[in-house]
């Protein structure tokens, strides 16, 4: 047994020994090259046979049990491509430790390795065939075993050189090319079980990697999973010592997101302190990055935006948990570029989507980044960016934590910016900042800080158009200041800001209570705040300052504000270029109802008008004080005193206005007065606010207001009066009281007139209210139960029942309104003063009633006639009333004349019900035949209106038109639509339709043979007659966006006032946005005019080309409104019209070809010089060779320039030259004011502007002139009326003297601004005729020579100097049966020395009377025989001479009778006796005047017997003779002053009787002479007369010279003459008294028509009612007859 055991042991030992030997043999043999080569061959053969592809291994080196080295290896894939190749693959593994389940890799050394890895779309790698070859035929999956405790890994040293890897992955669309120059590291700890790794150093150099990623076939992980994975901590314990990277180049491109990255690291060295990936804590000792270039780009694809968002979310999820610390960071000379091509490239400034940072350097230490803490110290930092931003210095120690944040020793510096010193912010917690801002602590000290706006605009270019950056690119803002404390209690010891223009701020402040403004307390002291307008406009955002506010050029403010919004005091002093303002005020509103306030305001020369851009307002100087307690008018106690020292308004400086007001527990009183030369008033006002309704009393005494001097009116208008208001209840709904205007006086243009009292009286109680207006012009009454503030709502509510324009609204709340009303407007003289063209105004009557509860409204109005100028409204009737279901209305007018437009029997009537306004408009002609009618309805829909015409409701020009049955035009906020709106008559048609139907679809307007006369004939006047036929279409579309209009219309044979212009083609559209394109052409009738171009609505500009190829003058004749006839010739030219309506630019010219025309009122035919041209250039309008040629081929030329830029303001530089040019060649049939022939020479220079023209030169009236002027008869002048009748108010005698200061009556010419000086020459052969009285034929004819100079200076003064010498002339006097001709003697002169009315007169006029001298010398002949007496019956030509000498307005008039020296067919004794008697008469003026009168009146002398009179009677005869001449002189002089005197009536009464007063019968002859004149529109008649004794005994003590012995004046108090006031003075001889008696008296005459005596006492109201009844009865009768 023992032996068996020993044998067994030996066998076992041998076996073990053999095994050991074999193992040792293997280890020995494996080192033998031959064995290794054999093993290599076997291995290659095995592998090739196993995998089926080429395998090469040039050398295998085994150093068991550790080292395996493969050299020159090559593996080929199935596509014959290289799978793996390499120079050396060396692995040092402790094989014996595998027995202990440990894989210990001591070294991995790979050199020159190339690997090509691919995976196809089926996720099959190009090396999968190798795995499958070694997998064998295993059919059953082995059960998984827990190997975590059976095998452990460790790696020590890794060395990689020249590694090149290519990886193409189809499923992920990745294409990777990787080259590794060198990598080495030693792994101190590699524990996969606990995932703990320790790498002391990693060296990586010469890396070049390229990764291109396309669209992957497989879907990626959802974003939520990425965020979850990013937020989860890594379960790895990884630490390393030093990471040394150099020359690393990595290129990444993603074709899906267009993302690209290109990183070129020069050198990156990282020294780690601690990496705790589980706790997400990275701690580095050092981080150095130098000489690196980094590029990252996002392409212009939507996926790039998604990648950006996902990366941002992943980064936020990761950053929330990580902590990062670095002891030392050093970045030097690095360049970073970033581009996000999904964002536009900014043209200026730093583009954070397209960054390019160069020379980035940063040195920092102790950097900490964590969730709640960021801190560190930056020792230096700098970089440059492509935008030009250059950060030269950046130093600070910063900290951001849970309770505070600060920047210490801050120093940021660029070329223009430097921010220095410390900023510290404290807070209880970060979350509390938003909820408890008051606890935010601030401590900041900015020392010598400069902020360059250029840097701000570089960092934030979007702010370039914001203020204050806009326009201040180079500005540098200087800030010095300190701030400390918490927001709830801040202190700013000093703050200085400057650098923005001229703005400078120096202030200090303390605050408490922020951010709650209700609790805020401020203590602000402004030591200096100065700025300029340009700075403010640059500081505030555009639009902040209203457009109507102007900022002063310079502003300086000093003062303080202390307190809260409810309790403060302030003293602010502002000095500006617009003036100065100071306010000292205090306000305490802490106790409601007892608010206290006090203010002292001073304004000196403050130009308030400039502040608000109102040129009407100027500078203001005032002082105001107010002090009080309480703001409730019922309880307040206050006083306010103000004095307006000066206030400029509308060019006038108002002065001396004082206001003094007090309020005491419900009573308010105010006094105001103004003592200004042109406005003087006193105001006393009192109000009682204690009652339910306030009461008001007011007395305003206006001593004078000169509206003209105050520049409130152009005319001279002054007012005087008193306004009193007494309102016991001033509530408009319970109004009791009166407002009265009394003692009113108006003076206008030197004329005074008083106004009757104007009163408004209102009463109100619980049952009814009344409102009465009484005035001279109008009276009105309102009676019933109403409230003034609710009448409007009640009226609107009533109307809405019949016609509502919108959705049904909640009815307005109001009490029932029930009232009646009436009003009358009557014509008074005041209308004539203020509306001189108002020739007639019949009494206007309006009446009606309203009951809101019953829903009734009745209005009746009557306007019998209004005649204003050429406008005439005759019998306008208005009627509005409600029925059970409708509101009916009717407006009728018998005749309407407006300028050249005339309508007869016009009527507008209809009703309103069910939201439909029905109307019927019609007119008739003079024969009462209907000619036009339009009937239709306007219906209110939901948010729209619908207009339609009745099918049988259209008549145009006497012809009924067809209207489609279902026509409608709908319009409103949602759009417009026309449906079947077709009007037709025979071949004429007008249609408006929307195609296709629907709101805002295109609207088509179609004209077919539509005749313009159909509409124009409604005028009823030939002067407006226009004709033609319209064809074509107009289209409007895109109503809901921007309407587009297109039109293509033609007007055939267009004519105006009978003159055919031609065919007009009109094409207009706005298909281009903001642009109207126009193409208008006129052809036919020899015309061709084209207008092409554009009008731009966005800037109101145009670009037009007007091409006048040919325009017949005859075509435009009608447009001159009969001011041109017999026109011929053509116009040609081209104009380029650009610019805007306010500033058009016209370039081009217009020429004339054989143009000629006749001016009807001159009856002169003129032709235009063929080379005449009107040019339009940049200066304005230039007339070149422009000349008119008369029928005698004489020329009048007008050349020069009319300067203008806007064609609204003009400046002249013209020369008007004429030589013997015939201006007038007319007859009385052509012109009833002037006619004849007028030839002139002129050399005139016209300059200045239309408002201030300047004319100088010469004007000559030539020899061939024979011109007749007709003087129109006008009313007597104001001066003639004064003093005749004057009314005086005895209760207010001062009123009659108001506005009667002589200075008030100064007359000023309305022709101001002119500068005219013309030398006027009158040829002595020229004949001038003046028809003084067209009715009786009085005419003055004269011919003479004149050298005059006339002018008007800028003040309006008219001057005339020079001399007029008459060669010959005559005056034909016609009166009833008398016709006498006075010949003006040659040599008579008129000399002017300045004043046109102050000429020196030396004129002699002679009337030749062919009469016998027998009656003149009969007394001297005695008892001469009859034969001798008969010789004196021979008629001789006696000259009756009228001599005028002295001043023109007050000439000395004398008479003479002369027998011219010549041979007569009579003896010399007759001549001698006659001359002797005439010489005797010259010494007896009364006898001479008697004989002059006899010659003029009877055409013979009066002998001493039987017409002898010792009393003479020369005075009355002299007066009569003088009046005859005075009428001539007055008419001529008044014509010169535009103030003619007419309407004079002369009466002669020659009575013969027998007189027995002496006891003997004697013949008696008396001559009564009367002169009458009507004034004041014939309301006043003045008669002057006297009696002259021609024959008979003379009474004792009777006057022999009695001029104007009897005077009588009659004034019609009413226009119809019913009431007449008569004043008279009668001078007659009383026989009983034997003396002259003068009787004076006043009478009042009433003229009435009556049938019964009681009708005399009938009231005016009864009379009006009776008249209305008669009118109503007459109308009803007329209707029945119709």
TrEMBL record:
Q: What is the lineage of its organism?
A: Bacteria, Pseudomonadati, Bacteroidota, Sphingobacteriia, Sphingobacteriales
Instruction: Write out the transmembrane intervals.
Output: 12-30
**UniProt subcellular location:** Membrane
Sequence segments annotated as region (Disordered)? 1662-1682
* GO cellular component labels: plasma membrane
* Compositionally biased spans, kind Basic and acidic residues: 1673-1682
Instruction: Please indicate if the UniProt record lists Glycosyltransferase as a keyword.
Output: no
Q: Which UniProt keywords apply?
A: Membrane, Transmembrane, Transmembrane helix
Ranges of residues in domain Translocation and assembly module TamB C-terminal = 1084-1169, 1190-1633
- Kindly state a single biological-process term from the GO annotations of this entry: protein secretion
> What is the organism field in this record?
Pararcticibacter amylolyticus
Which Pfam family is one of those matched by this entry?
Answer: TamB
Q: Which topology term describes how it sits in the membrane? A: Single-pass membrane protein
Protein name, as recorded = Translocation and assembly module TamB C-terminal domain-containing protein
List where this protein forms a coiled coil. Answer: none
């Amino acid at each position: 047994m023992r032996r068996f055991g020993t044998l067994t042991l030996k066998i076992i030992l041998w076996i073990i020994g053999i095994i050991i030997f074999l193992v040792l043999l293997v280890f020995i043999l494996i080192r033998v090259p031959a064995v290794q080569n054999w093993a290599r061959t076997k291995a290659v053969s095995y592998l090739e046979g196993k995998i089926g592809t080429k395998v090469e291994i040039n050398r295998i080196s085994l150093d068991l049990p550790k080292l395996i080295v493969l050299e020159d290896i090559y593996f080929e894939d199935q596509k014959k491509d290289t799978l793996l190749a390499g120079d050396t693959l060396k692995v040092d593994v402790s094989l014996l430790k595998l027995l202990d389940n440990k894989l210990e890799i001591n070294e991995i050394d790979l050199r020159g390795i190339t690997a090509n890895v691919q995976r196809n779309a089926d996720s099959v790698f190009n090396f999968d065939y190798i795995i499958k070859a070694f997998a064998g035929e295993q059919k059953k999956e082995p059960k998984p075993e827990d190997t975590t405790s059976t095998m452990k890994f460790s790696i020590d040293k890794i060395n990689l050189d020249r590694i090149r890897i290519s990886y193409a992955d189809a499923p992920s669309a990745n294409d990777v090319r990787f080259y590794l120059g060198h990598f080495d590291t030693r792994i101190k700890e590699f524990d996969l079980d606990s995932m703990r790794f320790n790498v002391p150093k990693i060296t990586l150099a010469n890396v070049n990697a390229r990764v291109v990623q396309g669209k992957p076939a497989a879907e990626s992980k959802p974003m939520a999973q990425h965020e979850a994975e990013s937020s989860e901590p890594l379960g790895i314990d990884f630490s390393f010592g030093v990471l040394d990277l150099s020359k690393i180049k990595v290129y990444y491109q993603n074709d899906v997101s267009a993302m690209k990255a290109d990183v070129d690291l020069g050198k990156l060295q990282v020294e780690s302190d601690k990496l705790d990936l589980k706790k997400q804590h990275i701690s580095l000792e050092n981080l150095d990055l130098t000489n690196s270039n980094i590029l990252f780009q996002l392409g212009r694809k939507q996926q790039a935006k998604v990648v950006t968002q996902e990366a941002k979310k992943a980064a936020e999820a990761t950053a929330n948990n990580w902590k990062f610390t670095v002891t030392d960071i050093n970045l030097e000379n690095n360049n970073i570029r970033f581009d996000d091509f999904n964002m536009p490239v900014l043209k200026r400034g730093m583009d954070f989507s397209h960054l390019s940072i160069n020379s980035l350097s940063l040195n920092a230490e102790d950097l900490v980044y964590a969730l709640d803490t960021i801190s560190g110290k930056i020792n230096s930092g700098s970089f440059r960016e492509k935008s030009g931003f250059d950060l030269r210095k950046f130093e600070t120690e910063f900290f951001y934590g849970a309770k505070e944040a600060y920047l210490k020793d801050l120093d940021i510096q660029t070329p223009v910016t430097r921010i220095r010193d410390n900023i510290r912010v404290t807070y209880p917690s970060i979350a509390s900042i938003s909820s408890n801002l008051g606890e935010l602590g601030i401590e900041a000290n900015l020392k010598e800080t400069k902020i360059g706006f250029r840097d701000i605009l570089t960092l934030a270019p979007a702010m370039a158009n914001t203020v204050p950056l806009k326009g201040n690119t180079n500005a540098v803002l200087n800030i010095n200041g300190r701030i400390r404390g918490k927001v709830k209690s801040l202190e700013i010891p000093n703050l200085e800001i400057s650098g923005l223009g001229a703005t400078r701020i120096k202030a200090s402040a303390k605050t408490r209570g922020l951010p709650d403004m209700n609790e805020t307390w401020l203590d602000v002291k402004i030591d200096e705040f100065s700025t300029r307008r340009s700075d403010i406009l640059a500081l505030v955002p555009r639009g902040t300052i209203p457009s109507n506010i102007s900022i002063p050029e310079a502003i300086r403010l000093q003062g303080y504000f202390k307190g809260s919004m409810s309790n403060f005091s302030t003293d602010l002093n502002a000095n500006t270029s617009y003036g100065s303002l100071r306010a000292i005020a205090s306000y305490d509103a802490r106790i409601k109802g007892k608010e206290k306030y006090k203010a002292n305001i001073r304004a000196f020369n403050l130009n308030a008008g400039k502040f608000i851009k109102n040129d009407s307002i100027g500078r203001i100087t005032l002082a105001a004080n107010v002090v009080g307690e309480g703001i409730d008018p019922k309880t307040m106690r206050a006083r306010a005193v103000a004095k307006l020292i000066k206030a400029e308004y509308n060019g006038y400086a108002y002065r001396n206005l004082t206001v003094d007001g007090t309020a005491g527990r419900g009573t308010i009183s105010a006094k105001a007065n103004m003592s200004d030369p042109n406005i003087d008033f006193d105001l006393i006002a009192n109000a009682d606010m204690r009652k339910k309704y306030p009461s008001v009393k007011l007395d305003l005494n206006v001593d004078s207001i000169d509206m003209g001097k105050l520049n409130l009116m152009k005319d001279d208008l002054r007012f005087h009066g008193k306004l009193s208001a007494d309102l016991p209840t001033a509530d408009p709904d319970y109004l009791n009281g009166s407002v009265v205007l009394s003692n009113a006086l108006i003076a206008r243009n030197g004329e005074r007139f008083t106004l009757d009292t104007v009163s408004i009286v209102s009463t109100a109680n619980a049952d009814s209210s009344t409102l009465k207006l009484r005035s001279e012009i109008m009276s009105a009454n309102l009676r019933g139960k109403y409230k003034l503030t609710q009448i409007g709502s009640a009226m609107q509510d009533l109307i809405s029942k019949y016609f509502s324009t919108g959705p049904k609204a909640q009815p307005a709340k109001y009490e029932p309104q029930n009232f009646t009303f009436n009003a009358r407007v009557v014509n008074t003289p005041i209308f004539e003063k203020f509306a001189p063209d108002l020739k007639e105004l019949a009494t206007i009557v309006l009446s009606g009633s309203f009951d809101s509860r019953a829903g009734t409204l009745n209005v009746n109005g009557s306007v019998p006639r209004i005649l204003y100028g050429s406008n005439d409204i005759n019998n306008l009737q208005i009627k509005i009333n409600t029925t059970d279901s409708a509101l009916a209305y009717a407006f009728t007018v018998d005749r309407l004349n407006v300028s050249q437009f005339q309508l007869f029997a016009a009527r507008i009537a209809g009703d309103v019900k069910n939201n439909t306004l029905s109307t019927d408009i019609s007119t008739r002609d003079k024969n009462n035949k209907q000619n036009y009618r339009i009937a239709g309805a306007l219906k209110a829909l939901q948010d729209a209106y619908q207009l339609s015409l009745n099918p049988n409701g259209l008549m145009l020009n006497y012809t009924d038109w067809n209207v489609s049955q279902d026509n409608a035009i709908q319009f409103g906020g949602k759009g417009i639509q026309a449906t079947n709106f077709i009007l037709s008559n025979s071949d004429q048609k007008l249609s408006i339709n929307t195609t296709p139907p629907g709101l805002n679809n295109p609207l088509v307007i179609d004209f077919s043979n539509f005749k313009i006369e159909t509409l124009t004939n409604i005028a009823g006047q030939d002067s407006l007659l226009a004709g033609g036929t319209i064809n074509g279409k107009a289209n409007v579309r895109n109503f809901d966006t921007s309407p587009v209009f297109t039109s293509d219309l033609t007007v055939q044979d267009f004519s105006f006032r009978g003159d055919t212009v031609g065919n007009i083609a009109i094409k207009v559209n706005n298909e281009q946005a903001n642009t109207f394109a126009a193409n208008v052409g006129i052809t036919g009738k020899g015309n061709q005019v084209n207008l092409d171009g554009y009008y731009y609505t966005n800037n109101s500009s145009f670009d037009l080309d007007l091409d006048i190829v040919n325009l017949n003058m005859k075509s435009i004749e009608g447009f001159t409104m009969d001011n041109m006839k017999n026109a011929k010739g053509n116009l040609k030219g081209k104009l380029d019209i650009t610019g805007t309506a306010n500033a058009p630019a016209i370039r081009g010219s217009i020429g004339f070809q054989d143009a000629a025309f006749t001016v009807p009122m001159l009856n002169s035919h003129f032709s235009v010089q063929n080379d005449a041209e009107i040019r339009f250039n940049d200066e304005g309008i230039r007339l070149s060779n422009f000349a008119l040629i008369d029928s005698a081929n004489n020329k009048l030329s007008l050349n020069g320039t009319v300067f203008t830029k806007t064609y609204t303001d003009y400046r002249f530089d013209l020369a008007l030259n004429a030589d013997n040019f015939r201006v007038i060649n007319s007859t009385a049939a052509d012109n009833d004011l002037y006619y004849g022939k007028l030839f002139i020479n002129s050399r005139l220079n016209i300059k200045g502007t239309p408002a201030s023209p300047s004319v100088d030169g010469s004007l000559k009236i030539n020899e061939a002139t024979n011109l007749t002027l007709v003087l129109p008869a006008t009313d007597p002048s104001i001066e003639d009326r004064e003093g005749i009748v004057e009314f005086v108010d005895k209760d207010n005698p001062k009123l009659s003297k108001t506005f009667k200061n002589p200075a008030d009556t100064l007359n000023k010419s309305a022709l101001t601004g002119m500068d005219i000086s013309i030398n006027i020459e009158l040829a002595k052969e020229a004949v001038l005729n003046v028809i003084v009285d067209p009715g009786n034929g009085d005419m003055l004819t004269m011919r003479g020579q004149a050298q005059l100079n006339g002018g008007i200076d800028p003040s309006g003064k008219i001057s005339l100097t020079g001399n007029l010498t008459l060669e010959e002339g005559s005056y034909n006097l016609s009166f009833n049966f008398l016709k006498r001709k006075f010949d003006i003697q040659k040599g008579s002169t008129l000399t002017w020395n300045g004043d046109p009315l102050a000429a020196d007169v030396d004129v002699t006029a002679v009337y030749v009377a062919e009469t016998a001298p027998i009656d003149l010398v009969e007394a001297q002949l005695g008892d001469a025989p009859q034969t001798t007496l008969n010789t004196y019956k021979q008629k001789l030509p006696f000259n009756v001479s009228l001599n005028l000498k002295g001043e023109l307005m007050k000439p000395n008039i004398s008479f003479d009778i002369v027998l011219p020296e010549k041979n007569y067919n009579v003896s010399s004794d007759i001549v001698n006796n006659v001359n002797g008697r005439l010489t005797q008469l010259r010494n007896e003026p009364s006898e001479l005047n008697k004989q002059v009168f006899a010659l003029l009146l009877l055409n013979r002398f009066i002998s001493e017997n039987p017409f002898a009179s010792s009393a003479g009677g020369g005075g009355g005869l002299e007066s009569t003779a003088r009046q005859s001449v005075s009428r001539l002189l007055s008419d001529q002089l008044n014509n010169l002053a535009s103030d003619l005197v007419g309407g004079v009536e002369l009466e002669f009464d020659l009575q013969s009787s027998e007189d027995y007063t002496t006891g003997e019968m004697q013949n008696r002859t008396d001559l009564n002479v009367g002169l009458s004149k009507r004034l004041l529109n014939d309301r006043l008649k003045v008669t002057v007369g006297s009696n002259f004794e021609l024959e008979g005994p003379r009474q004792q003590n009777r006057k022999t010279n009695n001029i104007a012995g009897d005077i009588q004046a009659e004034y019609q108090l009413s226009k119809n003459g019913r009431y007449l006031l008569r004043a008279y003075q009668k001078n007659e001889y009383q026989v009983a008294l034997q003396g002259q008696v003068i009787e004076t008296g006043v009478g009042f005459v009433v003229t009435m028509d009556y049938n019964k005596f009681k009708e005399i006492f009938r009231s005016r109201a009864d009379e009006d009612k009776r008249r209305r009844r008669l009118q109503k009865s007459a109308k009803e009768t007329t209707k029945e007859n119709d």
